[in-house]
Design brief:
Belongs to the UPF0312 family. This is Lipid/polyisoprenoid-binding YceI-like domain-containing protein. The chain has 183 residues and is mainly beta. The chain is built from one helix and eleven strands, in the order E-E-E-E-E-E-H-E-E-E-E-E. It has one helix at residues 72-79; strands at 14-18, 24-31, 35-41, 44-50, 56-63, 67-68, 91-102, 105-114, 117-131, 139-149, 168-182. The two termini are 22 Å apart.
C-alpha cells in the first residue's frame, strides 16, 4: 500500500475481525436478460488492520463452496467447472492495496482472486460508524459494492437464448455489509 493511495482510517488502530454473524457477502447477476438472481456466501472471514499511523489494510477470504441462491440445483451448477470450479478453486480472496477518500465515502482498492485469476478491483466503501458494542468490544460497520465481469476471472460459459441474449449476464454486482469487532 502506498502513502499516495492511503487515507487515515476512521476507526482506531488495531485489528478488527469480521463478525460473520452480523455481516453479509452477497451478489446479483442478470438472468434471462430481464431479472436478477441474488445469492450469498455463507462462509467467509476477514481482518481489517489499522496501523499506529492510521493506515488501514484489509484481507478477506470467501468459501465459494458455501454459495446459496436458494436453489440447490443452481448452486451445484455454479460450483461446477462451468462457473467456479469450486473443487479446484474453493476460495476467493481480497487483499487491499490502498484506500482513498471519495467525497464523504471511500474507495477501497485491492486484488481480488477468483477461480485462480487475480485482478485489481475498486469497491465503493461507506463507513457506517462505530459503536461500543454489547459487552464484547467496539464494533465498526461498513457497506461496500463493486461490479466485476465474470469473464475477467475465467468464468466464460456461454448460455445463449434462442431469441437472443444469454441466460446469465457478464456483470456481477458484489455487495458487502460488514460489521467488524475490534480484537
Amino acid at each position: 500500500m502506498t502513502a499516495a493511495t492511503t487515507v487515515k482510517a476512521p476507526i482506531p488502530a488495531g485489528t478488527w475481525k469480521i463478525d460473520t454473524t452480523h455481516s453479509t457477502v452477497g451478489f446479483s447477476v442478470k438472468h434471462l436478460m430481464v431479472s436478477k438472481v441474488r445469492g450469498t456466501f455463507e462462509n467467509f472471514s476477514g481482518t481489517i488492520t489499522v496501523d499506529e499511523n492510521g493506515a488501514p489494510s484489509v484481507q478477506a477470504e470467501i468459501d465459494v463452496t458455501s454459495i446459496s441462491t436458494n436453489n440447490a440445483q443452481r448452486d451445484g451448477h455454479i460450483k461446477s467447472a462451468d462457473f467456479f470450479d469450486a473443487e479446484k478453486y474453493p476460495t476467493a480472496t481480497f487483499v487491499s492495496t490502498g484506500v482513498r477518500q471519495n467525497g464523504d465515502d471511500y474507495t477501497l482498492e485491492g486484488d481480488f482472486t477468483l477461480k485462480g485469476v487475480t485482478k485489481p478491483v475498486s469497491l465503493d466503501l461507506e463507513f457506517n460508524g462505530t459503536n461500543p458494542g454489547m459487552g464484547h468490544g467496539t464494533v465498526a460497520g461498513f457497506d461496500a459494492k463493486t461490479v466485476i465481469n465474470r469473464k475477467d476471472f475465467g468464468i466464460d460459459i456461454e448460455m445463449p437464448l434462442e431469441g437472443g441474449g444469454v441466460v446469465v449476464g457478464d456483470k456481477i454486482t458484489i455487495t458487502l455489509e460488514i460489521e467488524a469487532l475490534q480484537a
